[in-house]
Amino acid sequence: MSRYFAFALALVAVTLAACNTIAGAGEDISRGGQAITNSAEKAK
Q1: Cα 23 to Cα 18: distance, rounded to the nearest angstrom
Q2: What is this structure's pTM?
Q3: In angstroms, rounded to a whole number, what is the distance separating the alpha carbons of residues 11 and 8?
Q4: How far apart are the C-alpha atoms of 18 and 13, rounded to whole Å?
Q5: At the top level of its lineage, which domain of life is listed (predicted)?
Q6: How far is CA 13 from the centre of its chain?
Q7: In a structure prediction context, what are the per-residue pLDDT tens digits for the chain, which is 44 residues long?
Q8: Rounded distance between C-alpha atoms, residue 44 and residue 40, angstroms
């Protein structure tokens, strides 16, 4: 029984870490897009 619990706990930890990583990547991409937009606005 404890093997299954350990496996489930590891699976949850990996899933949460992946969600955090994907959210961070989305924020980085968003900031990059904002920087490009600001540069384009200044160049007008």
Answers
A1: 9
A2: 0.55
A3: 5
A4: 9
A5: Bacteria
A6: 15
A7: 688 888 888 888 887 777 777 777 788 889 888 988 988 888 87
A8: 7
The dihedral sign for the CA sequence 10, 16, 22, 25: negative
- 40's tokens: 């384009």
Report which residue type is found at 5. F
Q: Which residue has 């870490």 as its token pair?
A: 17
Question: Alpha helices, DSSP H only, in 1-44?
Answer: 2-43
Euclidean distance between CA atoms 19 and 11, whole angstroms:
12
